[in-house]
Amino acid sequence: MALVYLCLLVGIPVLCIILLQKLLGNKNSKLPHPPGPRGLPIIGNLHQIDVSIFPQHLWELSKQYGPIMYLRLGHLPTLVISSPEIAKEFLKTHDLNFCSRPYLFGLKKVSYNGRDVLFSPYNEYWREMRKIVTVHLFSSKRIQSFRSIREEEVFQMIKGISEKGSSNEVLNLSDTLAPLTIAMTSRLAFGKKFNEVDMKRFKGLLKRFQDVTAAFYFSDIFPSLQWLDRFTGSSAELDGCFRDMDSFYQEVIDEHLDPCRPSSMDGDVIDILLQLKRDDQISSIDFTFDNIKAIIMLVLSNLLYSFDWELPPGIRKEDIDTDIGRGITLHKKNALCLKPRIFFYTSIQSDRLVVSYLKAKVMDLMDLYILVGVSVLLIVLPKLLQNYKSKLPHAPGPRGLPFIGNLHQIDVSILPHYLWKLSRQYGPIMYLRLGYLPVLVISNSEMAKLILKTHDLNFCSRPSLFGLRKVSYNYRDVVFSPYNEYWREMRKIVTIHLFSSKRIQSFRSIREEEVFLMIKGISEKASSNEVLNLTQILVPLANTIVCRLAFGKKFDEASMKRFEVLLARFQAVTAAFYFSDIFPMFARLDRLTGSSAELDRFFMDMDLFYQELIEEHLVASRPSSMEGDVIDILLQLKRDDQLSSIDFTIDNIKAIIMVKLSICFW
Question: What is an example of a GO molecular function annotated in this UniProt entry (predicted)?
Answer without folding.
Answer: oxidoreductase activity, acting on paired donors, with incorporation or reduction of molecular oxygen
